Amino acid sequence: MIPSKQDLLLAMQRVQPFVHETPILTSSMIDEQAGCKIFFKCENFQKMGAFKMRGALNAIGNLSEDQKKAGVVTHSSGNFGQAVALAARNLGVTAYVVMPENAPQVKKEAVKGYEGRITECVSTLQARETTSEEIRVKTGATFLHPSNNLDVILGNATAGIELFKEQGDLDYVLTPVGGGGLVAGTALAAHYFGNKCSTLGGEPFQADDAYRSLRSGKIETNVSTNTIADGLRTHLGDVNFPIIKALVSDIIRVEEHEIIDALRLIWERLKIVAEPSCAVPFAALLRKKELFKNKKVGIIISGGNVDVKNLPF
Amino acid sequence: MIPSKQDLLLAMQRVQPFVHETPILTSSMIDEQAGCKIFFKCENFQKMGAFKMRGALNAIGNLSEDQKKAGVVTHSSGNFGQAVALAARNLGVTAYVVMPENAPQVKKEAVKGYEGRITECVSTLQARETTSEEIRVKTGATFLHPSNNLDVILGNATAGIELFKEQGDLDYVLTPVGGGGLVAGTALAAHYFGNKCSTLGGEPFQADDAYRSLRSGKIETNVSTNTIADGLRTHLGDVNFPIIKALVSDIIRVEEHEIIDALRLIWERLKIVAEPSCAVPFAALLRKKELFKNKKVGIIISGGNVDVKNLPF
Predict the structure, then answer these.
(1) Quick one: pLDDT at residue B234?
(2) pTM of the entire predicted model
(3) Whole-angstrom Cα distance, residue B99 to residue B127?
(4) Which of these, B172, B179, B308, lies nearest to B248 by C-alpha position?
(5) A28 counts as catalytic
């Protein structure tokens, strides 16, 4: 079931008062190197440093008053935890955030700074899910999945809506693909607000579940997730996969060294601090230059919460 | 002799077609920490990565046709060389750029990329001046000083004009002080386009010539320039000093560790790639928090041309 344009507009109303309308940056040096015109939608400048603020706001904003009183719970290796903590604080709701012990320290500190209540667990999806479920049962809090939740997807779509409002004639829009919530939301925005704009995903070869899922027609999982793009290690879900199947044209896979090279270009040429995951769609574009030749391309820079003491270059 | 508002408007006309109107970024986390509301005017996103593009465009754009044919020459440890090379290419003029041998490789490569003709010399002001003069005599090119040139100062002022156009009610505007061209231009913009806005400069204790010049009433020089803020090692000149004396309220000095801490905040909280020099006015604000309490403050982020492989944190 594909959400309607009206659903997206309602999400926009809920999200807009609490977010930055993030700038769209361009670089003639990058365009020259890429052979096309790229519009970087900089969600690294979003509140709490990532697009995830949008999904969290829409999901929490759409709860009933009783649900809001009981709070929300999520598990996250980083950005969605921060997003839920800050969005919940904005809306006067308690946020319980389950984080793997090995999550970056800067992300744990940010969740605490936003008054999120952290519970740490071991770094497996199973441990995260079990711990979240325990909290849900104990507190009555509503569980918010970082990517497989329709309200989260619709909230994410608002970044794309802003992008198309400013650049209505994009030929392609690219996002990273982790859990699938951003690419699904962006594809919805392109469908309703673009002008024959194709949505593509970028994914590491080291975590190419979405690429394989699109080909097999069912949700595939990753055996290993040995990629620097730490935000892209999760897999698709039953809420976002139907949207992705219907509206995402393809997934382009990239090697780790291509991610690092693209990341360095983003830092040095675009002058922004962006997470490795953000570089994946740009790396995909550089890998398939011929496809994008002389086209107008939007790329969602998904987040900028990175420890600058620990860079891959 | 203080330039007129009309002089600034003419510079704006010359510069505007070739530059980005750079975004102004804010961060509620930074504001909380600083105790005031800060508007960062991000000239690190400017063409070639720094505000210096504005001064170079205005100075070259204001040459006669005969002068343009003979070309321009400058000496620069980095950003102004790139600015002159790119501005000259935009206007169809040959640019000769004298650079110290130890200038960052990334800056040398950028000058070459913009078709600037580089001559290297040893890393002293005297060698830079002598080498520039030799080229000037040989080619007939017009010498452009990076900061002590009225057209450069007026071009620099256009960043401030844009800032005040968007935020007309700033109480303070802060810039780094190196050669004095940015602080002089910004002070002019504040004088004509601000509303009782004071202009302040930030300067390293390790290169505090402007601080001492304002106090002695004459241009002082630096004995040593042992600061990480490599853009701020130069001294004031007879063109910009009268403007600074008339329109800059004060210079605030900061320690090296304060510059590094402020730089890291800019990277991690504002999510932008900025040069160490850019962090100096922000460090000055953090050092004198009580002065800025609850005020609205503009800070010009001067440039982002930094080697991300060689960071101080």
Answers:
(1) 86
(2) 0.92
(3) 10
(4) B172
(5) no
- Written as one string, the DSSP assignment of B178-227 is SSSHHHHHHHHHHHHHSSSPEEEEEEEGGG-HHHHHHHHSS----S----
Tens-digit pLDDT profile for residues A173-226: 999 999 999 999 999 999 999 999 999 999 999 999 999 999 999 999 988 889
B18 touches chain A (CB under 8 A): no
CA distances from A290 to A36, A188, A295 (A): 10, 26, 10
Helix residue ranges per DSSP H, B95-142: 105-113, 125-139
pLDDT at B242: 97
Q: What are the helix and strand counts (H, E) for chain B?
A: 14, 10
**Residue A240: both structure tokens together:** 């976002």
Ranges of residues in chain B with a pLDDT under 70 are none
Give the mutation candidate from A271, A272, A278 for the B interface (greatest B CB count, under 10 A): A271
For residues B278 and B52, give the distance between their C-alpha atoms in angstroms, rounded to a whole number: 13
B272 touches chain A (CB under 8 A): yes
Nearest to B25 among A45, A113, A264 (CB): A45
Using the beta-carbon criterion (under 8 Å), do B268 and A308 form an inter-chain contact?
yes
Predicted confidence (pLDDT) at residue A293 exceeds the cutoff of 90:
yes
Nearest one of B107, B108, B110 to B119, comparing CA atoms: B108
ipTM of the complex: 0.89
Select from B229, B244, B234, B215 the least CA-distant residue to B302.
Answer: B229
Per-residue confidence band for A129, with pLDDT thresholds at 50, 70 and 90: very high
Which of B167, B169, B155, B164 minimizes the C-alpha distance to B192? B164
